[in-house]
């Protein structure tokens, strides 16, 4: 039995980052959608880790992004710390608080990303709340993301009804704005979100905030089927996945990606920065090995 690291080396050798002739309809090919196309052609499920920028510091965040990129991440979600993180559970809230206390701010995060994004294979998806975008100005904000190499954007408090003001200018710059489907969403709202979401659809697996849970609710399988009936866009499942077995479960239910946040944030925060980096490397390898 190969170790996770040996397994991932074979996996990476077999799956170069390139354009595959797989027809993906209804959305423009971008770095994110192109990555999903490559994975689909090999029947692989994407792994999307989440970490909080600036916890324990931005230098460690830069190293963590590279470590994840080298140990099985297909895309990486990078959270910008915010003082009122309504969608985040206690682990990520605590990380954001620590980062803010050390002076982490958006410009510093983007400067850090600009230094490492060109050397990474995994597209970076920025996670931020809507208010900082409005304060900076949508056009200015998106141009900054494009300039530093950010490929996607998740805005958890962006109302569907207001999303068009962000979706159109982002698409022109090649940035995917990923919209979220909640477990409580109606069939009509699911269809509307599926039509507008770019890159992939983010299915929230639980009602409430992010956090580690012992099992994934079975209704996720039904919601996945419901989304599949109205779109062929990739679907990522997040909120609550903390173990390789859970990631494997959502893959078996038909998800195109497993999104894992609090479990990475916790490991990176425990012990010294180097111990945290070693822990997320091992964890990332084990998650990816479970879903290819």
From TrEMBL:
HAMAP family: Trp_synth_alpha (MF_00131). Its EC number is 4.2.1.20. It comes from the Bacteria. Belongs to the TrpA family. The gene is trpA. One of its GO terms (cellular component) is cytosol. This is Tryptophan synthase alpha chain. The active site is at residues 77, 88. Keywords: Amino-acid biosynthesis, Aromatic amino acid biosynthesis, Lyase, Tryptophan biosynthesis.
């Amino acid at each position: 039995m190969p170790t996770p690291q040996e397994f991932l080396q074979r996996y990476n050798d077999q799956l170069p980052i390139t354009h595959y002739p797989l027809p993906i309809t209804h959305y423009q090919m971008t770095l994110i959608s192109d990555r999903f196309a490559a994975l689909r052609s090999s029947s692989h499920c994407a792994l999307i880790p989440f970490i909080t920028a600036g916890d324990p510091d931005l230098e460690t965040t830069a190293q963590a992004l590279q470590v994840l990129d080298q140990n099985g991440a297909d895309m990486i979600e990078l959270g910008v710390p915010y003082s009122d993180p309504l969608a985040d559970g206690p682990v990520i809230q605590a990380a954001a608080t620590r980062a803010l206390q050390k002076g982490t701010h958006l410009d510093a995060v983007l400067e850090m990303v600009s230094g490492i994004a060109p050397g990474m294979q995994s597209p970076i998806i920025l996670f931020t709340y809507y208010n900082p975008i409005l304060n900076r100005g949508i056009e200015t904000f998106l141009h900054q993301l494009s300039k530093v190499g950010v490929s996607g954007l998740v805005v958890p408090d962006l109302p569907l009804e207001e999303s068009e003001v962000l979706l159109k200018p982002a698409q022109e710059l090649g940035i995917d704005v990923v919209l979220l489907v909640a477990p409580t969403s109606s069939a009509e709202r699911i269809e509307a979100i599926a039509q507008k979401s770019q890159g992939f659809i983010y299915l929230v697996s639980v009602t409430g905030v992010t956090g580690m849970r012992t099992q994934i609710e079975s209704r996720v399988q039904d919601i996945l089927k419901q989304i599949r009936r109205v779109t062929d866009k990739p679907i990522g499942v997040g909120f609550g996945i903390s173990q390789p077995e859970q990631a494997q479960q959502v893959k078996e239910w038909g998800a195109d990606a497993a999104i894992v946040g609090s479990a990475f944030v916790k490991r990176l925060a425990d012990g010294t920065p180097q111990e945290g980096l070693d822990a997320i490397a091992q964890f990332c390898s084990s998650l990816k090995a479970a879903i290819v």
